[in-house]
């Protein structure tokens, strides 16, 4: 019967189960009232109705720590253990039919260490130890305050029961705090991933702007390069044609020198001398000025931009609006090149040197370089 009574003790209130008894998914049993108390301690912020929880939630079994998930009915959705309730009724009937003195007489009482034949039946309040009646009358505790062992046992049992109940409640509250901390860790990790994604998107936008600016400025250099190369090639063809014509005149002059007839020679020489005079002049051909082949006037100065990039850091919440306004301004001016005004060239003439910087550098006139 004692072993059976131990199996019928609720792990929360440490008393015999009070009906109704509910069975958890882990097959452990609890009083419904105790289950409701544990659930409220684990979920202090869930709404209640008439002192009991009515919405879904979760708590842990006090015996095995298995997590119990409840539906919208709360603890009232747990199944009643009718078998345990019937066993409790049978145990109470059997206990009431048996006499208590008989059960007490069967209880083994420890013997006093001083008086070997005396049972320990009193409690010395002064020294805080159980002892026997002979120690109180003749022994070391004759001047001490004593109390019946049964009353002290009941008092200590009550204190221990209250302490255990308090520890169970504290453990459930601590477990709730641990669950909240774990959830906070998950939220922090998710927020960190989200912010890193946004950060990468912002840097990708910056990379795209730099690539677009690089492409735009490279096209300008390429266009000027092609313009100069085409002009030089055109001028080369003109000089080559002039050279071919001069060679033909030289060959004709050599042939004229071989003429033996004086009349024919004089006639041909007169025309030939006129052509030699015209071919010796290159005034009609353009000349390339010094430095025309240079392209180093297309240069950039990224010192301020490098300093600005090295100072990139996270902003405060009150700076979000300012950042949005800057992004809008940058988007409107994405197709322009500030910091240097392009100087157009007259075909065939070298252009004046110019400075081209990124959109973040101050504007400089072409004469500054």
UniProtKB/TrEMBL annotation:
Superkingdom as given in the UniProt entry: Eukaryota
Occurrences of domain RING-type (ranges): 10-65
Gene3D superfamilies referenced in this protein's UniProt entry, alphabetically: 1.20.5.170, Classic Zinc Finger, Zinc/RING finger domain, C3HC4 (zinc finger)
Domain called B box-type: residue spans: 107-149
Compositional bias (Low complexity): 357-369
Region ranges (Disordered): 315-369
Ranges where the COS domain occurs: 257-315
UniProt EC number: 2.3.2.27
Main localisation: cytoplasm
The keyword Metal-binding belongs to this UniProt entry's keyword annotation: yes
Stretches with biased composition (Acidic residues): 316-330
Coiled coil: 200-227
Name of protein: Tripartite motif-containing protein 54
Species annotation: Ameca splendens
Gene that produces this protein: TRIM55_1
């Amino acid at each position: 019967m004692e072993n059976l009574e131990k199996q019928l003790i609720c792990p929360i209130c440490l008393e015999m189960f009070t009906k109704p008894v509910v069975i958890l998914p882990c097959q452990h049993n609890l009083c419904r009232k105790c289950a409701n108390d544990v659930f409220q301690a684990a979920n202090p912020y869930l709404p209640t109705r008439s002192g009991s929880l009515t919405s879904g939630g979760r708590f842990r079994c006090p015996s095995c720590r298995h997590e119990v998930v409840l539906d919208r009915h709360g603890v009232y959705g747990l199944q009643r253990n009718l078998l345990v309730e019937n066993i409790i009724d049978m145990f109470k009937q059997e206990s009431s039919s048996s006499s208590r003195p008989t059960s007490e007489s069967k209880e083994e009482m420890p013997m006093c260490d001083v008086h070997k034949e005396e049972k320990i039946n009193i409690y010395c309040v002064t020294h805080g130890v159980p002892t026997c009646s002979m120690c109180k009358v003749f022994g070391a505790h004759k001047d001490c305050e004593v109390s019946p062992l049964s009353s002290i046992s009941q008092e200590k049992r009550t204190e221990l029961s209250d302490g255990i109940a308090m520890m169970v409640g504290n453990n459930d509250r601590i477990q709730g705090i641990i669950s909240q901390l774990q959830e906070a860790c998950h939220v922090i990790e998710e927020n960190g991933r989200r912010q890193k994604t946004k950060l990468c998107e912002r840097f990708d936008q910056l990379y795209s702007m730099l690539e677009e600016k690089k492409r735009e400025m490279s096209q300008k250099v390429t266009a000027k390069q092609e313009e100069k190369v085409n002009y030089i090639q055109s001028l080369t063809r003109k000089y080559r044609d002039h050279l071919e014509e001069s060679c033909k005149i030289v060959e004709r002059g050599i042939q004229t020198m071989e003429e033996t007839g004086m009349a024919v020679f004089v006639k041909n020489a007169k025309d030939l001398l006129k052509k030699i005079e015209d071919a010796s002049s290159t005034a009609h051909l353009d000349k390339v000025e010094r430095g025309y082949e240079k392209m180093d006037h297309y240069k950039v100065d990224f010192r301020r931009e490098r300093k600005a990039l090295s100072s990139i850091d996270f902003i405060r919440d009150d700076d979000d609006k300012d950042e949005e306004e800057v992004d809008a301004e940058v988007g409107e001016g994405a197709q322009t090149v500030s910091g240097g005004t392009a100087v157009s060239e007259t075909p065939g003439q070298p252009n004046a040197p110019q400075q081209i910087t990124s959109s973040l550098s101050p504007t400089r006139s072409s004469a500054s370089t």
